[in-house]
Write a structure and sequence with these properties.
The chain is mainly alpha-helical and 124 residues long. The chain contains six helices and three strands. Helices cover 61% and strands 11% of the residues. It has a three-stranded antiparallel sheet with strand order 1-3-2. A hairpin with a 5-residue loop joins strand 2 and strand 3. The longest helix is centred in the last third of the chain and has 19 residues.
């Protein structure tokens, strides 16, 4: 069996950082929001409810550096900056959205499991 050139389970592997950018709370939500189409910074901030301006900026920089997001600055006054997924970002976001839809679709089971767990922990 051929070994993979990258191994996310290895501490030194650069894929681990990208996985963290993609699966972190703000990265995943940002990718999911951009899957719907190109957005300006403030539109994206409104769509990703709860993200601070600083965190969104850091998230976008990391995703852009990883080649998942494209930033396009228009030379207008005031400046206009649009963000959109690259082809790689679109593929990653599509897989992530499938996971999101699975979780959302099974939340009734998750909530029931939480209730059972909490009740078992509270009983003597």
């Amino acid at each position: 069996m051929d070994s993979l050139p990258f191994d996310v389970f290895s501490r030194q592997c650069p894929s681990r950082g990208t996985l963290e950018h993609v699966t972190g709370r703000w990265g995943g939500l940002t990718l999911g929001a951009l899957y719907e189409g190109s957005l300006r910074f403030n539109e994206l901030r409104r769509r990703v409810d709860g993200v601070s301006e600083k965190m969104l900026s850091q998230t976008l920089h990391a995703l852009e550096r990883d080649g998942l997001v494209h930033r396009e600055a228009q030379p207008t006054n005031p400046p206009r900056v649009d963000y959109e997924l690259t082809p790689l970002g679109r593929e990653v976001a599509g897989r992530l959205l499938a996971l999101i839809q699975l979780v959302e679709g099974r939340m009734a089971e998750v909530l029931a499991a939480r209730t059972r767990y909490d009740e078992a922990r509270d009983s003597p």
